[in-house]
TrEMBL record, chain A:
The chain crosses the membrane at residues 26-46, 53-78, 98-117, 124-141, 171-192, 222-239, 259-281, 288-310. It is a multi-pass membrane protein. Signal peptide: none annotated. It is found in: Cell membrane. Its main location: membrane. InterPro entries: ABC_transp_permease, LivM-like. This is Amino acid/amide ABC transporter membrane protein 2, HAAT family.
Automatic annotation (TrEMBL), chain B:
GO terms for molecular function: ATP binding; ATP hydrolysis activity. This is Amino acid/amide ABC transporter ATP-binding protein 1, HAAT family. PROSITE patterns: ABC_TRANSPORTER_2. Gene3D superfamilies: P-loop containing nucleotide triphosphate hydrolases. Residues 5-246 form the ABC transporter domain. SUPFAM superfamilies: P-loop containing nucleoside triphosphate hydrolases. Keywords: ATP-binding, Nucleotide-binding, Transport. One of its GO terms (cellular component) is plasma membrane. InterPro entries: AAA+_ATPase (IPR003593), ABC_AA/LPS_Transport (IPR051120), ABC_transporter-like_ATP-bd (IPR003439), P-loop_NTPase (IPR027417). It comes from Wenxinia marina DSM 24838. It holds the Pfam family ABC_tran. CDD domains: ABC_Mj1267_LivG_branched.
Length: 326, 249
């Protein structure tokens, strides 16, 4: 127990590099190369769907894995941004980048409003408050005029990017989506490795101690909540441009559940886990679509198996084996 | 002498149960003041009231003449009044260096800048290392705090607290769960850091209290039973009765 007993002192560890570790940089580069080549091998719309959900899950992971806050209502931001972006493109005739921006801004405001109320509670109560508000957003989407109720907003036009570049072809759109989602994920990575991210991890690890160091933890929580909602909104807004559709599916509570599943399956608190989790779930939904309701059952089984067998998720497990943060 | 921390008529009720009842407490500047009492005497409640982790039902608390009764715990830490915790308070998944740096990072004010690289924090590394060296954790700088032994975690906690350069420290049972060897080292450390600071501590170990404190307040059933130096307090018949009456050794 002695603090200075040389007999039990292991050798000092080498200084870790500051910023993103080299192996993570390498993975990001390989990933980018693969993604650039991907639309020649895979149906681009499917690839775009995966990327949207990868960003959505990564945004959710920012809140859960690094802020330590479990939200059960992230569909609200994803879905509301998707409605606003679809409406902006269809009714206001905005260009895609402005439509996406409008949707993202709507999610940011919604996140700020709901977050400022939800962060007053902790643990399960926090999750319940976020769920309750998300249900309100769902019923708003069902009743409001501009969302189109049961029909949603259909046949959203693909306007020209910046009013210049046509995005009619799936290939052109693919690269727009790639830039936005990859950029979003890199931005999340920056948040995690910022001075703000350091305080965030401290709050996650030991909130009373962070308070005793003089940090006003509720402001940090509100900020990460808003950032997470904003980025979830970015994913939803892009998705509405890809599918030319905004519907109730995106604001439904099952969507909030799916993003939890993706994040836990891939590995919460890891960088690449949520992306992998999103890829697996979306692939399953796409290729097992013929099985109908069985997809939900399979998802449920995977979820139970994941929680029982590998709590740290697939990437978390690999990270433990390779002893490298992923 | 002037008072650093003062409480007047401090009272805390939990659903009809009065945990702290009309406590007056004055901690003089530059002293080590101990708060003792048998189990259930209200020491920890009192401590949490003073650090604002609990809000008093009634009463007034002033620090350096300033009313802090309505301030938040984070604001109190910003005034230089820093507390420690009974269970060792570290950030387990962060490295020792990052733990200490989080205290130094407070110098830059609020860290809301999520768009900046954490590289900007490396300017605090040298100062952090200084604090780490001081408590003998030099070779553990890049270990996760969770990997440290209990005694080392407490040393890390002290290094982190000192990095805030607090004017006053509130220590919640600093010796809890420690072996004799560690008790002596932490005692020496407390004596050293008390040179230009004020310290209020809750402690069970009466030997530590006797050797360290300038002044002692004895609590029992939420009320102040006696106050004075160790010799005075330990002779007071009501104190002896409270300790033996409560079945304390």
């Amino acid at each position: 127990m002695s603090t200075m007993d040389p007999a039990t002192s292991p050798a000092a560890r080498p200084e870790p590099s500051v910023g993103m570790p080299t192996h993570q940089k390498a993975i990001f580069v390989v990933l980018l190369i693969l993604l650039v080549a991907l639309p020649w091998f895979v149906y681009p719309v499917f690839a775009m769907k995966v990327m949207c959900f990868a960003l959505f899950a990564s945004a959710f992971n920012l809140l859960l894995g690094f802020g330590g806050l479990l939200s059960f209502g992230h569909a609200a931001y994803f879905g509301m941004a998707s409605y606003v972006a679809a409406h902006a493109a269809k009714v206001w005739g905005l260009t895609p980048e402005l439509a996406v921006l409008a949707g993202t801004a709507a999610a940011a405001l919604l996140g700020l409003a709901i977050g400022s109320l939800a962060i007053r509670r902790q643990g399960i109560y926090f999750a319940m408050v976020t769920l309750a508000f998300a249900q309100m957003v769902y019923f708003f989407a069902l009743q409001a005029e501009f969302t189109g109720g049961e029909d949603g907003i259909q046949s959203v036009p693909r306007n020209d990017l910046f009013g210049l570049i046509p995005l009619e072809s799936n290939m052109a759109l693919y690269f727009f989506v790639l830039v936005v989602t990859f950029g979003g994920i890199l931005f999340i990575h920056r948040i995690i490795h910022s001075p703000f991210g350091q305080v965030l991890k401290a709050i996650r690890e030991n909130e009373p101690r962070a308070v005793s160091l003089g940090y006003r933890v509720n402001r940090y929580k509100l900020m990460v909540f808003t950032l997470s909602a904003t980025l979830a909104g970015l994913a939803g807004a892009v998705k509405s441009q890809v599918f030319q559709l905004a519907s109730l599916t995106d604001v439904h509570w099952t969507m909030s559940g799916e993003v939890v599943l993706m994040t836990l399956l891939g590995g919460m608190g890891t960088v690449f886990g949520p992306m992998l989790g999103a890829a697996i779930i979306v692939t399953m939904q796409n290729y097992f679509a013929t099985l109908g309701a069985w997809v939900t059952v399979i998802q449920g089984v995977i979820f139970v198996a994941g929680v029982l067998l590998f709590r740290e998720g697939i990437v978390g497990l690999i990270a433990r084996w390779t002893k490298k943060p992923l | 002498m002037t008072a650093a921390l003062e409480a007047r008529g401090l009272r805390k009720e939990f659903k009809g149960f009065v945990a702290v009842d009309d406590v007056d407490l004055t901690v003089e500047k530059g002293t080590i003041h101990a708060l003792i009492g048998p189990n259930g005497a209200g020491k920890t409640t009192c401590f949490n009231l003073l650090t604002k982790f609990l809000s008093p039902t009634a009463g007034r608390i002033t620090y350096e003449g300033r009313d802090i009764t309505r301030l938040s715990p984070a604001d109190i830490a910003r005034l230089g009044l820093v507390r420690s915790f009974q269970i060792s308070a570290v950030f387990p998944d962060l490295s020792v260096l990052e733990n200490v740096r989080l205290a130094l990072q407070r110098q830059r004010g609020d860290s809301y800048d999520f768009w900046r690289s954490e590289r900007v924090l490396s300017r605090y590394d040298e100062a952090a290392r200084g604090h780490i060296d001081e408590v003998g954790l030099t070779e553990f700088a890049h270990h996760r705090a969770a990997e440290l032994s209990y005694g080392r975690k407490r040393a890390l906690e002290i290094a982190t607290t000192l990095a805030l350069e607090p004017q006053m420290l509130l220590l919640d049972e600093p010796m809890a769960g420690m072996g004799q060897e560690d008790v002596e080292r932490i005692s020496a450390l407390i004596r050293r850091i008390a040179k230009n600071r004020t310290i209020l501590m809750v402690e069970h170990n009466l030997n530590v209290v006797a050797s360290l404190s300038d002044r002692i307040t004895v609590l029992a059933r939420g009320e102040v039973l006696a106050e004075g130096d160790y010799a005075t307090v330990s002779q007071a018949p009501e104190v002896i009765e409270a300790y033996i009456g409560a079945g304390h050794d």
